[in-house]
Design a protein that fits this description.
CATH topology: Ferritin
Structural class: mainly alpha
Strand content: under 5%
CATH architecture: Up-down Bundle
Number of strands: 0
Largest sheet: none
Number of domains: 1
Order of helices and strands: HHHHH
């Protein structure tokens, strides 16, 4: 069983991961409405990943004979000012999630909970990768600006994600 503090912070992270899924579905819907189906598809896949992260955390608590407390998921933002705005919001959100995961690692270190520390390392690596993916998309959006043909090609490329 994990400590009360570890249990609480992981339960909070479960909620944050499920919220991330909601937020990314909102972003996906927004871009779908704009006709950017590839960007929309990429975000929908990302939403599924975030829910999977929440489930992975949930399973960890259950495997450690700890309890899960599911809380209400707040309504995500749903108004964006185009594709670049979506990805800038996404990047800021991912940085918050990274910080949150790092706080779990810090608490696990403070409590000498090597099992949780080892478990959470996967999430840290995942966050580094997710932040970089989004940052790369933003870089390209900054380079291409409002160039419609470049946006079309990026939309097609991101839509190929499985």
């Amino acid at each position: 069983m994990v400590s009360e503090k570890i249990n609480e912070i992981i339960n909070e992270q479960i909620n944050k991961e499920f919220y991330s899924g909601y937020l990314y579905l909102s972003m996906s819907s927004n871009l779908h409405e704009l006709g950017l189906f590839g960007f929309s598809s990429w975000l929908k896949i990302q939403a599924k990943e975030e829910v999977e992260h929440g489930l992975k955390l949930l399973d960890y608590l259950l495997e450690r004979n700890s309890y899960v407390t599911l809380k209400q998921i707040r309504t995500p933002e749903f108004e964006f000012k185009g594709v670049k705005s979506v990805f800038e919001t996404l990047y800021e959100h991912e940085k918050c999630i990274t910080n949150s995961v790092m706080n779990i690692a810090k608490l696990a270190e403070e409590e000498c909970d090597r099992t949780t520390l080892s478990f959470i390392d996967w999430f840290i690596e995942e966050q580094i990768e997710e932040e970089q993916q989004v940052k790369d998309i933003i870089k390209r959006l900054n380079i291409f600006g409002e160039e419609k043909s470049a946006l079309y090609l990026m939309d097609k490329e991101l839509g190929a994600r499985q």
